[in-house]
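--- STAGE predict ---
source: upstream dedup step, 1 unique chain passed
mode: sequence only
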Amino acid sequence: MSILPHFASGRRLNNTLVKGMRLLETLAHCERPAGVTELARQLGFGKSLTHRLLQGWVALGYVRRVDPAGTYAATLRLWQLGSAVFERLDIRQIATPYMTRLLGCTRETVHLSVLDGDEVVYIHKLDSPEPVRAYSEVGGRAPAWCVATGKALLAWQDPGQLDALSQRLVGHSSKTITDPAAFLREMERIRNVGFAGNRGEWREEVCGVAAPVRDPAGQVIAAIGVSGPVDRLRPSRFKALSVDVIAAADGISSAIGAGGET
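--- STAGE serialize ---
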């Protein structure tokens, strides 16, 4: 069904569709219902065109009229549409070019991980070309509080979950953080700097750096990171490596439509 049947086809219709999408996106980001005059002024459209565009979106169910004064708001149908698309996304496929670029920049093994309870699951990886490298396998697991991708996933979890986890930390190397207060400070530090580091906390000879990947709602759904032998990937390199790691995470987030702060 045509959204705006009153407009001619071709170039004029395409231009109108672009304006219609700009209007819908603007309305979706409004913190409160907005009126025709306000929207027209914000977008630089005429009031007549703005009104017609709104009526088209109302007819399709993406916008609703809030009150007799004539203010409008986006409906949940927009969220439902986005959710339907997101459910079909293969994050591994989306992440591959960013992982490849990160591998080229760092020459260290690149992992893409998701959280499963207190563990991370490696869902994709690209191996380092170096003869000595960090070994892992797709489908492998590790304690989330011990590895960089796990810590990047945990840091943005609900505070109550972090408090509970802090009480059941188990050491896996001499460098594992097991003190509850120290763990919670580490989570706060990660949120502040935007990346996580593993200083030999799972296997003492392996270090890593990771950053969170977000969905369109801004929620952390995965983490991308690099790992390698401590001789090459020393904690003193973490800050420098984090630039490329965060860029890769932000790229994946943008590719899946995230608008949240990373």
